[in-house]
Amino acid sequence: LLGQIGQLLVDGRHPGQGLVVQIHIGAGLVDEVDGVGNAMSEQTEKKILSPEQAVQAACILFELNTREQDLLEMAQRAGVPCGDDASRRALTREWYGFVHAAVVYGLMAQASNQVMAEYLRSTRTLLSQMAGYTPEQIESFIDDTFSSYIRLMAQNQQKQCPSLFYQRLVGEGALETLPKERVAFLSGMMAITMCAILDKLGQYEFGVE
Hints:
Elements: H1 2-11, H2 29-33, H3 36-42, E1 47-49, H4 51-64, H5 68-78, H6 85-108, H7 113-131, H8 135-154, H9 161-169, H10 174-177, H11 180-201, E2 204-206
Parallel strand pairs: 1-2
């Protein structure tokens, strides 16, 4: 089951359809996202996911959007420090917070409380496995980093996410000192990532047990 969902998300294809979107921030993402509109317009039936399948799909979206190499490449182009262990840990934590919030925001609109609760529980395991976070670090991540981004999204202030990202990693006034093309790149990547996550979740209906 997990393998089937993973293949569906990674390939970005439904039977009889063209490319939908491959959810990650590596090279070629923009070209792949361009195919979303046509594929979505052709879609007549949504796949129904059980609560278990929905949680697995959400976890896969989180993992695909937090690949370390993609993140480091993005940081270098966006002018975000990532040259030492401390800066890479801070970068990873911040991006995890943004992506986790985007997935939760997408689930909030469609999924049941059961799915939401189980996804939130599952991400604790993911953070432990992927980043080696302790229970205390996970609680801090949820209360601080994740909460900062989900609050903006819940208030329909998603456009403020890049500013918050820079503020927390580079410091106050970063938007005024960094080259505009770097800021525009990060803003674009955050917008693309969030839209891709919401589009993918929007292709499903979430069943209730």
